[in-house]
């Protein structure tokens, strides 16, 4: 393998956001619109992900896209006509919101081509990332701005080197939905040493209740491993397979630690969880939260939903 710079304190500057999926769980809404552009209240889901990266100091963002994803580029680009119109109307509040996405970060785009799994999407980022550690953020998980998960992951990387994966504890009957960690305590609260990963294990075979969530801080050594990683489940190149190699090896850039996240996370990966995420975030808004909470209380108390199902 190629020698990599594995200095634990090396600054993490770059973020990679895979966004080439078709979003079939949200059809027909995603027939002509990328799932990443689905609004969470009034902000596209993808903007929450970019904002999270920026809060952690990652201002160089690469999106891995595919066909029909042009609106992602448009969202983070300027819309001069719209800005001029809002300025002419004196609508400074909306103008600021429109310009916010444009000014967030330096956003780059590369197409994945033939999607072959998350591992393949990460491999596509190699030319842009180069010989640096980088963060991968999956768009189905929105992490609350009040819970700085990426900062914690970067701190673990600075102490231990290698790669860092975010986990959460889930009930035993849900572990089959996630990648799962074989891990042991490090002596630091909510930091574990990972010795193995199992992709969606059966409940009785799961080594723990630590489930992978969509945040990875990867050493560039992962690119060497991905080049040698054969397709796994579903004919796709699995990132967990590459992380398994990094966790069990001792070469440059090897070693995997985990951060157990206990903060607020909003899952936008399926219809029900997406609706819950919208309601939870909207209910905390200063502009509509009070009215929404009052209405929700009245709606539940009235039993309207139960009557509709009867």
From TrEMBL:
EC numbers: 2.7.7.9
Q: Does the keyword Transmembrane helix apply?
A: no
Query: One Pfam family name from the record?
Result: NTP_transferase
Single GO term (MF): UTP:glucose-1-phosphate uridylyltransferase activity
What is this enzyme's class at the first EC digit? transferase
Which reaction equation describes what this protein catalyses?
Answer: alpha-D-glucose 1-phosphate + UTP + H(+) = UDP-alpha-D-glucose + diphosphate
* Keywords noted in UniProt: Nucleotidyltransferase, Transferase
Instruction: Cite the Nucleotidyl transferase domain residue spans from the record.
Output: 14-281
InterPro entries for the chain = GalU_uridylyltTrfase_bac/arc, NTP_transferase_dom, Nucleotide-diphossugar_trans
Classification via SUPFAM superfamilies: Nucleotide-diphospho-sugar transferases (SSF53448)
Q: Which PANTHER family match?
A: UTP--GLUCOSE-1-PHOSPHATE URIDYLYLTRANSFERASE (PTHR43197)
State the similarity comment: Belongs to the UDPGP type 2 family.
Instruction: Write the protein's name.
Output: UTP--glucose-1-phosphate uridylyltransferase
